[in-house]
Amino acid sequence: MSAEIVQLMEQAGPFLSAAVAAYGAGILSRAGEATLDAAVEDTAGLGRRIVRLVWRRRDGDGRAALARAASKAADESGGGDAADGLRREIERALREDPLLAREVAALLPTQRGATVNISGARPIGAQHIGIAVSGDNATIHPPKP
After folding, report:
1. pTM of the prediction?
2. Count of alpha carbons within 13 Å of 145, Cβ hemisphere only?
3. Rounded Cα distance, 12 and 8, in Å
4. Whether the Cβ atoms of residue 132 and residue 126 lie closer than 8 Å to each other
5. What mean pLDDT is reported for the chain?
6. Do residues 24 and 72 lie in contact, with contact meaning Cβ atoms separated by under 8 Å?
7. Mean pLDDT, residues 92-109 taken together
8. What is the DSSP letter of 25?
9. Alpha-carbon torsion 8, 85, 79, 47, what sign?
10. What is the rounded distance in angstroms from the CA atom of residue 135 to the CA atom of residue 121?
11. Distance of CA 97 to the CA centre of its chain
12. Tens digit of each residue's pLDDT (9 = 90 or more) over 29-69
């Protein structure tokens, strides 16, 4: 489950960072929700839903730690990742509660990807590709009408 939690946190990280940036210390409250536009709501809103879900499932000490991490993230500015401490608190909660981890995973968009295996002296790897040439003295002919 540990590797799954790490992967889950990597996927949730951008949403949590966006939530801290958009909501600041209000991440745990409802204030300001109506002021966010749809684009921000897609990312920051999801991060906020994750934080609230974790909040509801924590005990008093867990909630206090989460509130401190959210407040500290909101107060930090400039260099570094302001949501790092918040992510650590959420990761701790997910490790302690596998059901919570599954609930958070269900909130996140499904990852779509492709596995591309490449080999050889001059390999080309891509998920989507038009024309690709690998090698010396290659000639590309335009398609015939």
Report:
1. 0.61
2. 0
3. 6
4. yes
5. 77
6. no
7. 92
8. G
9. positive
10. 9
11. 19
12. 654 455 555 656 667 788 888 999 999 999 999 999 998 88
